[in-house]
Amino acid sequence: MLEQIEPAPADAILGLTAAFNSDPRSEKVNLSVGVYKDEHGKTPILDCVRTAATELAAEAATKSYLPIPGLVEYREAVCDLLFGSGHEVIEGKRIASAQTPGGTGALRVAGEFIKANLPGATLWHSDPTWPNHPNVFNACGLPLKKYPYFDSQNDRLDYEGMLAALKKIPAGDVVLLHGCCHNPTGVDPTGQQWTEIASVLRERGVLPLLDFAYQGFADGIEEDAAGLRAFSTEGAELMVCSSFSKNFSLYRERVGALAIVGKTAESASALQTQLNAVIRRLYSNPPAHGAEIVNKVLRSATLREQWIADVAAMRRRINNMRQGFVDGLAEAGVPGDFSFITQQRGMFSFSGLSKEQVESLRDEHAVYIVGSGRINVAGLTPTNLKYVAEAIGDVVG
Ligand code: PMP
């Protein structure tokens, strides 16, 4: 019975890391999966996380279950971070929320919630998007459609195309947007464009679903929430999936959250019960450790300050690597204007390399990037930068 089952295709991104790990070449560089690395190519534990974990170990009194939607204190701290403490959606008790196993867990819960409670809704995602988005939402049984996002001729947001498509989406559908640091393009709407997008969707009766996996990696922790807050107007409804994988470097601890903003406090109470029902049948209740760490850091003035400085340092290093990469490409004699790379935000850069060039990079130079041409800039270091730029020079030359 089981013998007839064929192997599944390799994952578009994680499959590359498996191939990377088994590559014997010593000069190999992995710029595929979205993991931050420091200048030594390591993904270290943040000091504030280590301190919080040590304190938690000493204080731990039980390993009994958490409530279905997770730790109340954590959920409140996350909502403060997302919406800003004292925001009307918080004061008005308009939020249903849950602690989830990572951002992916939040997306899956959101998808299941939509499938169960908004029958017939289609989910619209940007073209391109993170390849796991279609995987997750297909698994929920949601119909998917795309809206244009990227102008590859000019390496910028195709704002006109995007807005025109959003204006045609039927009422009752859901639009998935990347809260900041769009993956894979690194191109985000401006503040003014966010406001316009929010009002178009609101007028049409379309529900925004924001995937917010990189808070703090573009301009700052507060600054990066500007898009999300443009949607959080009086009486507006929206869903937000957030993740602490990147900005707390807590990848393997699986810490995220889903916030659903309802029109009223009464509506939010009903939404919370439906949210709990979805989680109960998916995984019953979330794991505690990562969320306890985040909660402790966010609630301690000293640890929080350290964390804000850590995120700023990660952001600065990525931006330095962006500039270094552009300079490196010029030095390697790669033809073309790559200055757009310094305009892109977050971990990723859409290099414009073709599928064949991406394959040559891997086969001939052991440089691993995603087939779409997406480069994880946060994987570049002062040591590997020149090698990568020269390898690109070789495959495009
Ligand atoms: N959304 C996007 C756009 C992402 O890039 C990622 C991580 N690669 C996630 C969600 C999920 O992150 P997590 O590891 O927390 O599940």
List the helices and strands and how they pair.
Elements: H1 14-21, E1 29-30, H2 47-59, H3 72-83, H4 88-91, E2 95-100, H5 102-117, E3 123-127, H6 132-139, E4 144-148, E5 150-151, E6 156-157, H7 159-166, E7 174-178, H8 191-204, E8 207-212, H9 226-231, E9 238-243, E10 256-261, H10 265-282, H11 289-299, H12 301-331, H13 340-343, E11 348-350, H14 355-365, E12 367-368, E13 374-376, H15 385-396
Parallel strand pairs: 1-12, 3-4, 3-7, 7-8, 8-9
Antiparallel strand pairs: 2-10, 5-6, 9-10, 11-13
The structure holds 4'-deoxy-4'-aminopyridoxal-5'-phosphate (PMP).
Structure description:
By secondary structure, the chain is an alpha/beta fold. Helices cover 44% and strands 13% of the residues. The chain contains 15 helices and 13 strands. The strands form 4 sheets. Strands 2-10-9-8-7-3-4 form a 7-stranded mixed beta sheet. The chain has a two-stranded parallel sheet with strand order 1-12. Helix 12 (301-331) crosses helix 15. Bound molecules: 4'-deoxy-4'-aminopyridoxal-5'-phosphate. Residues 34, 102-104, 130, 178, 183, 211, 213, 243, 245, 251, 256 line the site of 4'-deoxy-4'-aminopyridoxal-5'-phosphate. Keywords: Aminotransferase, Pyridoxal phosphate, Transferase.
Kindly report the oligomeric state of this protein.
single chain
Distinct compounds present: 4'-deoxy-4'-aminopyridoxal-5'-phosphate
Shape: globular
Please summarize the sheet with the most strands. Answer: 7 strands, mixed
Q: Report how far the terminal alpha carbons are from each other.
A: 51 Å
Beta-strand share of residues: 5-15%
Counting helices, strands and paired strands, the structural category is alpha/beta
- The spatial strand order of the largest sheet comes to 2-10-9-8-7-3-4
